[in-house]
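For consistency, the fold was encoded as tokens, which produced the following:
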Amino acid sequence: VQLQASGGGSVQAGGSLRLSCEDSGRTFSRYYMAWFRQVPGKDREFVAAIGRGGTDQRYADSVKARFTISRDSAKNTVYLQMDSLIPADTAIYYCAVGNIWYSPNMFDYNFWGQGTLVTVSS
């Protein structure tokens, strides 16, 4: 598994971004996928997770109804569509893969992407 995250950037509050995370390995369909985020000085926090088939999704309360996680098995890619962004969403976003469904615990995920920075200004 080799994860490459992209799509971060700077937006104003109320704007949208779509993050992508491509798995260059050949085991994408075997794993559950998730997005976490981290602000310097704070713990990495769960954002969203998606099951292997793509139909099961879980979200942190703080992003529910604003963020949407999806996956495209043909492209070995998981996405995080982020709408109605607020300054509190500012963080480095990480994608991760794991074998346990469902877990918001970062220690249950085996592989991590390098992170992509999202900055939301007011």
Remarks:
- The radius of gyration is 13 Å.
- The chain has a mean pLDDT of 94.
